[in-house]
Every structure is written in C-alpha cells, then in structure tokens.
Design goal:
Blueprint (H helix, E strand, L loop, with lengths): L2 H17 L7 E5 L5 E3 L1 H5 L4 E6 L5 E8 H7 L15 E7 L4 E5 H4 L9 E6 L2 E2 L8 E3 L13 E8 L3
Parallel strand pairs: 1-10
Antiparallel strand pairs: 1-2, 3-4, 4-7, 5-6, 5-10, 7-8, 7-9
Length: 164
C-alpha cells in the first residue's frame, strides 16, 4: 500500500470515528425506590409533556418543556398518594447536577395531596434542546421566588428515606 493510500485510509477512518454521535445523555433516578431508572431524552419524550413559563432577566418569558418531576418519580415507584404517610413523609429527593450542585425537595411538597408543587424536568427551552450550559436536562421550579433550585445540567435524582 502506498503512503498516500495509507494516509487516505487513516483520514477516512478518523472521519468515521469523529462523525459518530456522542452517547445519549442519561438522567439517573435511584435510591429508596422500587424501580431505579436511566432515562434518556427519548424516554422523556414518550412521557406526558408539560410546559411552564418563567420570567427572563430582560422581562421576556422563557418557555420550558418536559415532564413533571412527580411523573418521573412515580415511574420509578416513589411513594405518593396513600403511600405517603407516617415515616415515609421523611423522604426527600436529592437532585444532583454534573458540576456537583445539589438541591433537595421533600416528597410531601411534590405530592398533589400535600404541597402540589409543580416542578419540571425540562429537556427543551423555547422549543429547542437546551445547550450544554443548561442541559441536557434541567429542573424548573416556576413557583420558587429565586431560581436556586432550578438545577441546570441535571444528572441524578436520588430518593432518600430518613426513617425506615
């Protein structure tokens, strides 16, 4: 094989390797739940979708689209409704971002019979997939007065039960 043909073959091989799509982003749902999950954007797209609008710093509105945190946790078997009584009320969700940022939500504040807090696991912003500084997944808490619990680059949801 000539040197030129070898270089052409190597360039073709490099092009094939670099043209492959990056691995799909995954949201891990784990901890004290019946069914740990690894959800991709495709998995979330198949679940019931909702949108929320939040004010942007410039006074316009940002529209996020995704699946409620409640629906994700219910899919994983977290206790809600009649199961959310007694010691189970000491359970919480630890949301972790890729950069190490963490926030907490109690199961009681998410349950429709208690706090009924609507929090979104968003995968779209203004109709488009979120950029790498925001996503691929983000928690959006439209009723919080500050955005501190709207975790960007969401990677893991861990359900923790304090009292067993």
């Amino acid at each position: 094989m000539s040197y030129t043909r070898l270089l052409s073959a190597l360039a073709l091989l490099a092009g094939i390797v670099f043209a492959q799509a990056p691995p799909a982003a995954v949201l891990a749902v784990q901890g004290d739940i019946a069914t740990p999950l690894s959800l991709t954007a495709d998995d979330l797209a198949k679940m019931p979708r909702e949108t929320v609008s939040v004010p942007a710093p410039d006074g316009t509105k940002i529209v996020y689209e995704g699946v409620t945190l409640l629906a994700v946790l219910q899919k994983a078997g977290a206790p809600f409704g009649k199961q959310l009584r007694g010691k189970v009320l000491s359970s919480y969700v630890l949301a972790k971002a890729m950069d190490g940022y963490q926030v907490v939500f109690t199961l009681g504040e998410l349950d429709p019979d208690f706090g009924n807090e609507s929090i979104l696991v968003a995968d779209k912003r203004d109709g488009k997939p979120m950029g790498e500084k925001q996503g691929p997944f983000r928690l959006v808490c439209p009723n919080d007065h500050e955005g501190a619990r709207s975790v960007r680059m969401l990677q893991t949801l861990e359900v923790v039960r304090l009292a067993k």
